[in-house]
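Re: folding output
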Amino acid sequence: MATIIRPGAGPKARAQSAVPLMVGLVLVIAVCAATFADVRYAPVLPYALAYVAIVAATWRRLAPVALSPAFYLSAYLCVVAVLGVSVGDQLSGAGGTGFTDFLLDPAISARTASALFVAASLCLIGAALVRRRPSHIAIGDLLDLGDLSKYAKWFLLIGVVELAVLAYIVGINEIFERDSRLLGRGTNIETIVSMLAVAVLVLVGIAFFTSKGALRFLSLVLILGFIAYFVSMGSRRLALVPLLLLLAYVFARRGKLSVIPVVIAAVGAVVTLALPLHFRGQASHGLLPYMASLSSFSLSPEMLATSLNNFVAGFKITAVTGFQSAKIPTEALPISLSPLDGNVVGWYEVAPLLRINRYTPYSAIGELINYGSLVFVVILLGLGIVLGFSQVLNDKLLTSPLGRLVAILALGLIFMFVIQSSQYNLRSVVRYIYLALGAQVIGVVLVYANRALHRREGSRATT
């Protein structure tokens, strides 16, 4: 069971403070360096210092930060801010940004970075309002889900169903070859199934690492099927595949980890992050054209710069969305936040307005900036409250192996929300949070029902 740690009690609690504070200080140092390089970025520094102060004031309630969704989002937004003001202009011209590869006015860059630091601070404040007590669980205990080999057949069945549904919804022909890079029809069902593909790949990976013979062979076939699907999408989610398989490997070994798999996964992630950018430059799209183009792919310094520029592009997209685009109609906000199907709420009528160009949508954070200060503050503070509530639910889930599996799934979904928040529409990314919360609520119900059942059986045995 996760044990409660009182603020400041013991070396573990003190050690937890090092991570968030060091992250904050490194970010401030980076902002200082950018300020010395160009004094026009000096207005960002007070917001960066305020962020560090808020981290220092909230880390106790959010500990351990390794399991804090709010800290994930706040740290990511600050990293985007720092990279935007420090290397954004230097990477201009490297490509890979969906026609947003341009120089920003330093004043706009400073306003954007400041807004990102404010967003990060509001998120931490909101989470701290909800989660009043820290908890501690060792990472090794978190990743030890027990003997999962007995579930291998069920994991494989889930994998077969997931791939079959994906192929049916998207279409076999579109997966293999199509004219447009964009894949799918954007319905809620398709979005949910696509999101679940990430989690299901982990389950299939667990089956591969815990089984032998025919089951392992079937697991390998399914893994290759999922990789083929991600390749055909030309999506940066392809870069998650090595990391997801590493996570499956750790689960299969009950939380044990060695250096070699980590190195292999890290190298694989770098390569697979560059591949989608190469695929997007092809004349035709889909699995067959992309595989045929591999002979011309090379991981050159230019390609690495393009990959980094693709990540930093989130800063420019947010800047253009928030400060240089036409005012977004107010009625678009409830549509973007609604969990209902797009056809029901009228999403497809407003979606064309929320794009920089055909290939680049507005960013979620940029949309909130565009709506004005009041909406920006209220939504970011509310988002922090939701992420804090998510961590509270995970506190309840971490007390059992089943609950830990659900908690890790929820963290993975929220991580997808985090890394896409600076480059995709608010509606596109907020659904990850809805899905994560739904999984957590169901998980908490199952954990408590299972606990009640065991107590009842124990009572009967005693009687």
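--- second protein (sequence, then structure) ---
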Amino acid sequence: MLIWHLFKSPSAFLTDPWGFARNQTGHVLIVGFLPVLLLGPWAALPAIGLYAIWEAAQWRFYGATPSDGLEDLAYVTGGVLAALWWPVLIVLAFMLASGVQYRRELRG
């Protein structure tokens, strides 16, 4: 039930920096990294493709913004790539730090 609730309530966490950090860390680890780690490299493109469909459905049916969907998809793709080549984690860390700082600035 939690997944369905999350699907129906997309959020970019614009005023919640730590919610954003938890959300994107989940995208990286659970949706991107873990499937490729457990199933192997052949799962990389299906993981990205299925997640892109998920984000498109959120945009179409539940009012998600395209920018939030693209950002989430970038983190999922980063997680997939990190499972294949660990230095990608460095890029993801900078992306995450940038997103957290941006939201801290918005919050004031």
